[in-house]
Write a structure and sequence with these properties.
Helix content is about 5%, strand content about 45%. It is mostly beta strands. The protein is globular, with a radius of gyration of 23 Å.
């Protein structure tokens, strides 16, 4: 059965059996389903380091870019799905939250040139003349091949907000002694003068993220104090993150010289190979401040290039982390936006008994990258960035706060507030 018809069938069933709906809802995350798909970027137009968040009706757009290294141009399409704060698909038909057509082609693409790797770059802006947004909330952009939604290529989360509340907050050194000063505490207040909230503890949900990571996001916080048009979230334990360490970095924008964090750049016909500078475990070491991009990366070149999307080349990047012995009970992964903020088989390192190192090779496009080494305990969905990198309250981090509102009887969660705080910019 076609996925669209199946979804409609499920909606009909769920409307008649509301109490049984949770078991059949679809969960959506940031994912790439094909090895040939690389360098997926999703951000506000004009600012590559921005988060994919728009205000409802705002005169701005989001931009999706990705490369297909299969060597041939394909016909890709996309659809957009509305989700709740936990990224389960909402019980709404697409006509209730989208203007225009639910399924559309991605018809803006071009082939690479002057590169060792041949690829096709795809480009999409949202909203556009074919589709727009009627309501606020969490959304999933789902890209698939041809006209078959089951042939999924990638999915990306984004947000449409209606700014009905103001969020005032700050990030500070954790105040509880048990955290030994190594953590960040995120305190904030939601001011809702424009929004009447009858039952804040049930109708309002907040999500706090650190550097755009979903794996360690804090959910389920209730307001500690409820005042006149103010909801205060001033906890000392429930709102604490491990501060971690500044992200590692490397620069592959120039193939003629070694960039920052690079030991060697070699050309083994027909491809480039980048060997990164020797790494070390930073837990327990002295903290050193420096400016970085909180885990993000940019596609750029310092060579004679006019179009970064089409002329920046791909190269094999070699990571290595020496350890006295392999860590048991989990995996070590290279982690950051370069991994889609996921820790999986695609970025899992392998222990080399001969060299005494964890090693990994990734195929990455020219640019400037941030990353961390994380430990992922077996069976855990959360990447531990402290075990190998350490945690220091002086670390500079971004924190994103989302406020959702769903009054009694409503069928979906509205995103009524969003802000980003920085641990250094108070």
């Amino acid at each position: 059965m076609h996925v669209r018809l199946l979804s409609l069938f499920l909606v009909i069933i769920l409307c008649g059996f509301a109490g049984r709906g949770e078991e059949t809802r679809f969960y959506h995350g940031n994912a790439v389903y094909r090895e040939d798909i690389k360098s997926v970027r999703f951000h506000r137009q004009g600012f590559e380091l921005s988060n994919p968040v728009l205000n409802l009706g705002e005169e701005a757009r989001l931009v999706l870019k990705f490369d297909d290294l299969s060597g041939e141009a394909k016909r890709y399409s996309y659809t957009i799905l509305h989700c709740d704060p936990d990224w389960n698909e909402s019980f709404l038909s697409q006509s209730q939250y989208l203007e225009g057509f639910p399924d559309n082609p991605i018809d803006d693409y071009a082939r690479s040139f002057n590169t060792t790797f041949s690829f096709v770059n795809y480009y999409l802006e949202l909203p556009n003349e074919r589709v727009g947004f009627k309501i606020s909330g969490n959304y999933i952009l789902l890209v698939y091949e041809g006209n078959d939604r089951e042939k999924q290529v990638l999915s990306r989360r984004f947000h449409i907000a209606e700014p009905l509340v103001t969020i005032e907050g700050r990030v500070r050194r954790a105040t509880t002694d048990a955290f030994r000063g190594e953590n960040h505490e995120v305190d904030f207040t939601v001011i809702h003068d424009q929004l009447r909230i009858e039952n804040p503890r049930e109708e309002v949900r907040v999500v706090i993220m650190q550097n755009n990571r979903w794996d360690n996001a804090i959910r389920g916080l209730k307001p500690l104090f409820i005042q006149q048009n103010r909801l205060v979230y001033d906890y000392s334990r429930e709102n604490v993150f491990s501060a971690g360490n500044e992200f590692r970095y490397f620069d592959t924008r120039n193939h003629t010289i070694n960039g920052e964090g690079v030991t060697s750049t070699t050309f083994h016909r027909p491809y480039y190979h980048i060997t990164l500078s020797p790494s070390e475990v930073r837990n327990g070491k002295r903290y050193f401040p420096y400016r970085e991009m909180n885990g993000r990366y940019v596609i750029e070149s310092q060579e004679r290039v006019e179009d970064f999307d089409l002329e920046c080349d791909y190269q094999f990047v070699h990571f290595s982390l020496p350890l006295e012995a392999p860590l048991l009970g989990g995996t070590i992964n290279v982690f950051g936006e370069l991994s889609g903020w996921n820790a999986n088989k695609g970025n899992e390192m392998t222990w080399n008994f001969e060299t005494g190192r964890y090693e990994l090779t990734l195929l990455l496009k020219q640019g400037y990258y941030n990353y961390l080494y994380v430990y992922v305990p077996e069976g855990s969905a959360v990447a531990d960035h402290v075990n190998l990198e350490g945690s220091y309250w002086e670390t500079e981090n971004d924190y994103q706060i989302f406020v959702y509102y769903k009054p009694a009887g409503a069928r979906y969660d509205r995103l009524v507030g969003y802000t980003q705080l920085n641990s250094k910019n108070l």
